[in-house]
Design goal:
Length: 407
């Protein structure tokens, strides 16, 4: 079965305007089921945890339901492997602080030049605090893919952790995370995966990947602003968390410091329910099977959109795409496409498109290592167009026409 894009778009109130939302890598729009969940929580069960009264009991039930749903979404073994937090960056810093207790001077951490700085800065600061060494895994500037042969050269008996992104938020490259994890583990190192950019586009199975930690952000897969961390239970249980004394000693509670963003956690349940619904009424099985089918439908449609976008952009004079463009290799990218146009500053291009109500990002998108490696940081970085399954061919054609009309 194919994705009914008209029915999809009808569920997103923001899409009723004539704006084109190509700013999705920075945050997607939300469907009505998310709004319903948030409104229902705040009006019927808004309370703190652990009370002996109705609203607190109901709040606890909804939060537990959300945690179980996220465990299914990520393929975790048990709900206790799911940690909620304000955003991916804060959760990564939190885990890095806990891991720092176990790292020793001279230990090594591998980061990549293809990553968002939220999966670089926490590890650099850990290294600075503990006297560890940072090793950089480079990428090929021609197609923006990681050099795995270089990874083997970087790994050593002193490597304690490899931090890698599932998909680049700057240029869309999907990295071979399972293989990277396998090589890290063979060297005795942990693997921490930033899957924020991948989550709206593909199915995540932490056990198939074999990673030790993985982070996503609900507002990138049609939910509210919220970060989610998966960690192998034995790792979470072993690590010492920075917490207040009355907080639980066991995960997940020991890592969820203070009162959490309850309405956003429940809103994330709405996002997962929305995604599962894309499997269609004829789908059978449990929530995981519904998500499998939904992601298959999303993937087929988004691959078609990616071809349309890349092929259209390549007709524009002076435009250079950074990342994979070869039709035979496009399955190794998400539909996040960044480019420059000769003679036009990225900010000026974004402003031109914005005047036509086409919303795109410009700059480095916190992937500073990428724009530095591509020698674009000093000239305004990149123009980024990010598609998701509610976008259309007509919107791509509108973008192309507007770019061709640049003054």
């Amino acid at each position: 079965m194919t994705l009914d894009v008209k029915a999809v778009r009808s569920q997103f109130p923001a899409l009723k305007s004539d704006a084109v939302f190509f700013d999705n890598p920075g945050g997607t729009q939300v469907p009505q089921p998310v709004l319903n969940r948030i409104h229902g929580y705040l009006t019927a069960s808004n309370a703190n945890r652990g009370g002996a009264f109705r609203t607190s009991i109901e709040s606890d039930r909804l939060l537990d339901d959300s945690r179980r749903a996220m465990a299914v979404f990520l393929g975790a073994t048990r709900p206790e492997e799911i940690i909620f937090g304000p955003n991916m960056t804060s959760l990564t810093f939190q885990v890095s602080r806990a891991l720092a207790r176990e790292f020793l001077p001279g230990d090594e951490i591998i980061v990549t030049r293809l990553d968002h700085d939220a999966n670089i800065a926490p590890w650099r600061l850990l290294a600075e605090d503990r006297g560890c060494l940072i090793r950089w895994l480079d990428f090929d500037p021609e197609d923006c893919t990681l050099d795995l042969n270089r990874l083997d050269a970087l790994l050593s008996p002193r490597t304690r952790l490899v931090a890698v992104g599932y998909a680049s938020n700057a240029v869309g490259t999907v990295n071979p995370v399972a293989e990277i994890t396998r090589r890290a583990h063979a060297a005795g190192a942990l693997c921490f995966v930033d899957a924020v950019q991948y989550a709206p586009h593909g199915r995540i199975d932490v056990h198939a990947l074999g990673c030790d930690f993985l982070v996503v952000a609900a507002y990138k897969f049609f939910g509210p602003h919220l970060g989610i961390l998966y960690g192998r239970y034995e790792m979470l249980d072993r690590l010492r968390a920075y917490k207040v004394r009355p907080a639980p000693e066991a995960p997940p509670g020991k890592f969820e410091t203070g009162t959490q963003l309850h309405e956003n956690i429940v809103g994330t349940l709405g996002a997962l329910e929305y995604l599962a619904s894309l499997a269609g009424s004829e789908a059978s099985g449990d929530q995981g099977q519904h998500l499998d089918e939904a992601v298959r439908r999303i993937g087929r449609y988004e691959r078609h959109l990616t071809d349309r976008l890349v092929d259209s952009l390549q007709t524009i004079h002076g435009l250079r795409i950074y990342g994979i463009t070869d039709p035979a290799q496009r399955e190794a990218r998400v539909p996040t496409v960044s480019f420059t146009i000769e003679g036009h500053h990225p900010r000026a291009v974004a402003e031109h498109l914005g005047r036509g109500r086409i919303y795109v990002w410009d700059g480095n998108f916190y992937a500073l290592a990428v724009t530095e490696r591509l020698e674009l940081e000093g000239s305004g970085g990149l123009i980024r167009v990010g598609l998701v399954h509610y976008n259309t061919e007509d919107e791509i054609d509108r973008l192309t026409a507007s770019l061709k009309a640049l003054p």
